[in-house]
Amino acid sequence: MKLQHYLGGLEGLGRINFEKRVFVQPWEKRIFGIHVAMMALSQHLETAKVTPTKFKSVWTWANLRKLAEGMNPFDYFKYRYYEKWLGGISSFFIESGYVSTIELDAKTEIFLEKSNTSLPHNSKPEIDAQVIEYLRVGDSPKCNADIKPKFSVGDIVTIKNPLPTEHCKLPGYLRNKKGVVDVVYEGVYNYPLQTGDGVGDPMPIYSIKFDSHEIWGNLTEPKTWIYADIYEAYIENPI
């Protein structure tokens, strides 16, 4: 389990940045655009499979998060939001064979030495149309699988404490905590990759209500509640 998943409720973490701008530096917009284009052209989409492009891989939010979280936790805290994206995307292209480390380093040196170097531009109407359509309709994780939820509204449940993995969808501060099922979301949902701790295949998702004292003791105000959406694989009946 990554250290960055255990930060909820911790004190003394230093100054909090309340930056509200979506993009602080101009280059961040390009990183966001690259990520969106990769999702729009991901080969798990039927429409993307017939789009004339050299990108023949599957790329989702899950892939981005897994690779970004793969860095050393202290580096994770050091870098800006889109710097983590850049690290995850770069690692993916290298590992997938689209570019070598040597080629990437050489290109980086060129732009570092001459910041006014023109960026590559090769617009293709078919690809542009696919990206725009993806931005319009999105990609829902909801599935048609006929899977009945194991828990009902009002059930008292315990959150599991799964073994450490490369990527996890469970906040660390909820592990081993008891809560009450507040909402059973309609249908089942698929996570785009196997996390190694039970999430990946289609399953129900629940909104679980926690007494804040169950999580953080007397550090919180009385009668305050925490709500978290949690995959069924992370939930069990209390012992």
Automatic annotation (TrEMBL):
It comes from the Bacteria. Belongs to the nitrile hydratase subunit beta family. NCBIfam families: nitrile_beta. Its EC number is 4.2.1.84. NHase catalyzes the hydration of various nitrile compounds to the corresponding amides. This is nitrile hydratase. One of its GO terms (molecular function) is nitrile hydratase activity. Residues 140-236 form the Nitrile hydratase beta subunit domain. Keywords: Lyase. It is an enzyme of class 4 (lyase). Residues 1-122 form the Nitrile hydratase beta subunit-like N-terminal domain. Pfam families: NHase_beta_C (PF02211), NHase_beta_N (PF21006). It catalyses: an aliphatic primary amide = an aliphatic nitrile + H2O.
